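TOKENISED FOLD:
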Amino acid sequence: AISSCDKFSAWQVAAAIWSSINDIDAVTQSSQFAAIGACDEAVQWELALHMFCRMSHCRGVQSGFSFTAVISACEKGIQWQLALRLLRNMEAARVTANLMSFNAAVSSCEKVGQWELALALVNEMAAVELLPDIVTYSATMSACG
């Protein structure tokens, strides 16, 4: 049911289902990601973060998909500092940041004109052997004004 909510951006339904779940371990990772994704699409970054934290607290496991979805939700909600903090927390959680994670973080810097941070993220990508793509370059150039 939750995965259908992501496809139709029905974040209210995903939130209602999520809040009614008592046993978070019974929920599949794909359903958790779909719930966070539905919030991302609806720019409900606070709810996405809440779901992410609840999932992390109960399971003690975080995935690259869930991190990226929450970073993206923060980017869309113009929460660039939180997006960058989440990107940094990936390493501490032993989760490898990927191109999508970095792109969401770079885009969050773009939204607020933090061009120095956007450029630093591009350099960091090179250091971890990730190749920037058109999204990375476009967001970085846009951040520069």
